[in-house]
Design brief:
This protein has a single domain (42-234), classed as Rossmann fold, CATH 3.40.50.2020. The chain has helices spanning 4-19, 36-40, 84-95, 102-115, 130-136, 140-152, 176-183, 210-221; strands spanning 75-77, 80-81, 122-125, 161-163, 187-189, 198-206, 226-234. With 236 residues, the chain is an alpha/beta fold. α8 (210-221) links the parallel β6 and β7 (226-234). The mean pLDDT is 89. The N and C termini lie far apart (46 Å). It is globular. Strands 1, 2, 3, 6 and 7 form a five-stranded parallel sheet that branches. It has a two-stranded antiparallel ribbon with strand order 4-5. It is 37% helix and 14% strand.
């Protein structure tokens, strides 16, 4: 029965594509949510990058994104900068209920992992508060995590890390300090299933790294040995 379920899911996607053909979020061309031409124009991050936050280094090989303080997250990696087509795609997924974009975006993450491997035993999505989950109806990071898990073969655990405080959106926080305050103590682990595990933490965007860092702190407090962040895009 377990082998049949993925086939049923694929058939459902094919049927939906026939009834409601996808259109590129970049140019509007029919056929794919991100067409080949727009995919080539994605704002890729090229080395050299910061070993911690993953942002491109300055010509002087300096990172303008890190505060210099010790972090709980071991590193953050992303294939793209948060602008252009990938920004529009993430907004469509996150705010406009275009959940069908998740498989395409997960392919981009998996392609990145093939060229830039991250050591990990389990995938964990950044959670949202249950109130926001009721408002939105889904957690976009969980969608990405489940799709990525199917591609890379790692198990996903999306009910262990919990957001216990309902706070303002990170996107609306005025500064990096505000973002850090917003997420201080915001996350906890519901149990000890991640004890001794190396975790790949999944989110859509990292702005200051505060959310990823707070999640990593909660995961390590519950016994995770290391936490590496993977996001679609980094905001400079």
């Amino acid at each position: 029965m377990a082998d049949v379920l993925p086939q049923i899911a694929r058939l459902k996607r094919v049927a939906l594509d026939l009834l409601f053909p996808p259109y590129c979020v970049g140019c509007g061309r029919e056929g794919s949510y991100i067409c080949d031409r727009c995919a080539r124009e994605m704002p890729f991050i090229y080395p050299p990058i910061c070993a911690v936050c993953g942002r491109p280094l300055s010509p002087e090989n300096r990172c303008t994104g890190c505060s210099g303080e010790k972090t709980e997250i071991d590193c953050i990696r992303a294939p793209f900068l948060f602008n252009g087509i990938i920004r529009r795609a993430i907004h469509e997924l996150k705010y406009r209920n275009l959940r069908a974009l998740a498989p395409r975006l997960a392919v981009l993450l998996n392609d990145f992992l093939i060229d830039n491997p991250l050591t990990g035993e389990v995938i964990v999505p950044v959670p949202i508060h249950r109130k926001r989950l009721r408002e939105r109806g889904y957690n976009q990071s969980s969608l990405l995590a489940r799709e990525l898990a199917g591609l890379c073969g790692l198990p996903v655990m999306d009910n262990c890390l919990v957001r216990r405080t309902y706070l303002s959106s990170q996107a609306r926080a005025a500064s990096a300090d505000d973002r850090r305050k917003n997420v201080t103590g915001a996350f906890t682990c519901a149990d000890g299933r991640l004890k001794g595990k190396t975790v790949i933490l999944i989110d859509d965007v990292s702005t200051s790294g505060a959310t990823m860092n707070a999640c990593a702190g909660a995961l390590k407090a519950a016994g995770a040995t290391s936490v590496r962040g993977l996001v679609l895009a980094l905001e400079l």
